[in-house]
C-alpha cells in the first residue's frame, strides 16, 4: 500500500480523532496535489458541522431575544438542531466512505486519484 493512499484515507478518518489538525497538516506538508486535494475536501467536510452548530446557536439566540414566544424559539431551534444533526451524520458517512475508497483505490483509477 502506498503512502499517498494512506494519507488520503487518514485525512477522511481523522474525523474521529483530530478533525482539523490532521487534514491541515497533510494539506501543508504533503508533496502531491492529489493528497492536498483530499485533505482540503476532508477539512471542508469536517468544518461544515461546526459552522452549522455556530449558526444554529446564533439563530436560536437571535430568535429568542427578538420574540417573546418560547414556542417559536423552540420550533426554530429544534428544526435547526435536527438539520445540523442530519448534516453531521451524512458528512460522517461521506468521510467513512471516502476513506475506505482511498484505501481500496486502484493505482490506475482516474476517478478517485485525479483532482477533477
Automatic annotation (TrEMBL):
It is a multi-pass membrane protein. This is DUF4870 domain-containing protein. It is found in: Membrane. The keyword DNA-binding does not apply. It comes from Listeria cornellensis FSL F6-0969. Its main location: membrane. The chain crosses the membrane at residues 6-29, 41-63, 75-97. The keyword Cytoplasm does not apply. Keywords: Membrane, Transmembrane, Transmembrane helix. It comes from the Bacteria. InterPro entries: MamF_MmsF.
Amino acid at each position: 500500500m502506498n503512502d499517498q493512499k494512506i494519507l488520503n484515507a487518514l485525512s477522511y478518518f481523522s474525523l474521529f480523532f483530530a478533525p482539523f489538525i490532521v487534514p491541515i497538516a497533510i494539506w501543508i506538508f504533503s508533496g502531491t496535489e492529489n493528497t492536498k486535494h483530499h485533505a482540503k475536501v476532508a477539512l471542508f467536510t469536517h468544518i461544515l458541522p461546526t459552522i452549522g452548530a455556530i449558526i444554529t446557536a446564533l439563530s436560536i439566540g437571535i430568535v429568542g431575544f427578538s420574540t417573546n414566544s418560547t414556542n417559536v424559539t423552540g420550533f426554530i431551534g429544534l428544526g435547526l438542531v435536527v438539520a445540523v444533526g442530519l448534516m453531521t451524520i451524512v458528512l460522517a458517512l461521506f468521510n467513512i466512505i471516502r476513506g475506505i475508497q482511498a484505501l481500496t483505490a486502484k493505482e490506475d483509477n482516474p476517478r478517485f486519484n485525479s483532482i477533477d
